[in-house]
Amino acid sequence: MQKRLVLDEEQIAITLRRFCHQLIENHDDFENTVLLGLQPRGTLLVDKIVALLKEISGVTVPSGYLDATFHRDDFRRRDLPLKANETKINFLVEGKKVILIDDVLYKGRSVRAAMDAMIAFGRPQKVELMVLVDRKLTRDYPIMPDYFGVRINTLESQYVIVEWKEQGHEKDSIWITEKDKS
Amino acid sequence: MSQLSTRHLLGIKNITQEDVELILQTAANFKEVINRPIKKVPSLRDITIANIFFENSTRTRLSFELAEKRLSADVVNFSSSNSSVKKGETLVDTVNNILSMKVDMVVMRHSSPGAPHFLSRNVKANIVNAGDGTHEHPTQALLDAFSIQEKLGDVAGKKVAIIGDILHSRVALSNIFCLQKLGAEVMVCGPITLLPKHIESLGVKVELDVRKALQWCDVANVLRIQLERQQIKYFPSLREYSLYYGINRKMLEELDKEIVIMHPGPINRGVELSSDVADSEHAIILEQVQNGVAVRMAVLYLLAGAKG
Lengths: 182, 308
Hints:
heterodimer, A: alpha/beta, 8 strands, B: Rossmann fold, Rossmann fold, five-stranded parallel sheet, 11 helices, PRTase-like (chain A), uracil phosphoribosyltransferase activity (chain A), PRTase_dom (chain A), glycosyltransferase (chain A), EC 2.4.2.9 (chain A)
């Protein structure tokens, strides 16, 4: 299968560090800010951002994992239902600035569902979206990221794969591949 | 796996171990949902569910209705006492009439064993058995297994004693199937007249002495004496039953270990459980009720998502 590298380990590390500095610029001392990683693939990313922010600014920003499976608009419309994951949020988002974090922004439907799920924890003051990869030509909903690592043109016939060392891969890397047609 | 192998939940016997595990995993997600400030998710907003109860129920019916509403389903309720069933309408006609009003799922309790199975062969909707006579009560078994898992970390390898009126209990049968699928050891205990013949052929231990059963088990699931189903006398008096099979604080204190006490409700206080046991820290009876909503949400959600 053809694979094309989008970001390598060094570029991902630089991107994460850039994210942190952008967040510090916009959120100052993070007094009223929380980070939510979207299940299943935004959770590792949110943990990395929290650790990096702690290293850079010494602040531990409250964070959690948000699962939007029960809020998706494709339930009963997919061949196979999606499996739910754990939602782990030990705070209310009422009046908070929330940063939703995911690895890839594709159609925007997951983010829409996530915003719906998030409202169950209160009315946030402001919501921002951070993604490593913005697939800009494939959006179904009018959703744009506030922070993105790389913006790429892809087709619906392609996958964007994000690999992490923590998940057993040799290196952190982001690839584009063709969907298997068989 | 993210899908059940069946589109009806008729009993535990005919679903797979993977189905049970998927339901329990999904129930854990829903337990988190029902503890949120906003306890509702929109998953079943395009689904209508009919709760058809031909037999009395408080907890199960409320629990199903809450589960349905927390999933945003539209709910219609039906009880046989004030319906055309009294005028001689058949079960299939009653249900088909309800379904022609565009109902997608039916939750049914019936006094005849096999009624939901019959229905599942004759109507198009997904059927959930909420108790059929003395046969099965699958969601109760699932919530019992979920409660054990939550309390003890795992069901596999645990010893569970089901104590009381096994003969008339649909909860007992569903529990036996469910716990065995999850790898627990099961014992039934009660007066010999209230134990079905050949029950040991289901692979359960049989014990007549409640003290020995308590000494053996990690979890005691205590059942109610179902006087309404008993056509003849199976034991001399409730007082005598309570004397020999009632569980009280003193018996638990005599054990050299901690055990978990469960009861599917309604409790006959002073008969199968004394009040000081029912209200003690050993009992997880109210947790079972809370878990019931989460488990039923999981069942309805997964059945609604099942294809075909």
